[in-house]
Amino acid sequence: MALGNKEIMAENIQYYLAKNAKAPIDMVRDLEFKQTTVYDWINARTYPRIDKIEMMANYFGIDKSDLVEKRNTNEMHSNKKDDKTVDLEQDTTILALDGIELSDDYKQFIIDQVRSLRKLRGDDE
User: Fold this and answer.
1) What span, in angstroms and rounded, lies between the C-alpha atoms of 83 and 76?
2) Is 72 exposed, middle or buried (0-12, 13-18, 19+ CB in 10 A)?
3) Within the chain, how many helices (H) and strands (E) appear?
4) In the predicted model, is pLDDT for residue 45 greater than 70?
5) How far apart are CA 124 and CA 119, in angstroms?
6) What is the C-alpha separation between 89 and 96, in angstroms, rounded?
7) Which of 2, 4, 60, 70 is the most exposed place for a label (fewest CB within 10 A)?
8) How is the chain split among helix, strand and coil, in percent rounded to 5?
């Protein structure tokens, strides 16, 4: 079933909220939107006006098209300047969670979990 414009917008708002570790209430507060309006967008009941789309795009640091167009979930958006790709097995970058460096064992655990999820989903490496 093809998604309509409201559903695509709802998915994208939810995606960018999660990607930026924000809750809907943060966007309500930060952009001074009405709470009911934001929840209507998130639940695909209504569609935002272009000025609100532009405010959200600026808030998330993305293009307006990133909110209104269906995202390809299988593709990395490497053209965004803040995206980073790290090969957990090859890169010597220090990874941390909540300010605490991840041990090599924890990194390997993450790698193993991602591989297991890929197998479950049928995504062959």
Assistant:
1) 9
2) exposed
3) 6, 2
4) yes
5) 7
6) 15
7) 2
8) 50, 5, 45
Global pTM value: 0.58
Instruction: Indicate the DSSP class of residue 29.
Output: H
In this structure, what token pair is assigned to residue 21?
Answer: 């570790």
pLDDT band of residue 79 (cuts 50, 70, 90) is very low
Residue 101's SS3 state is strand
Closest CA to 56 of 37, 72, 43, 76: 37
User: Quick one: DSSP state of residue 69?
Assistant: S
**Angle (CA) 45 48 52, round 5°:** 150
Q: Are 57 and 31 in contact (CB under 8 A)?
A: no
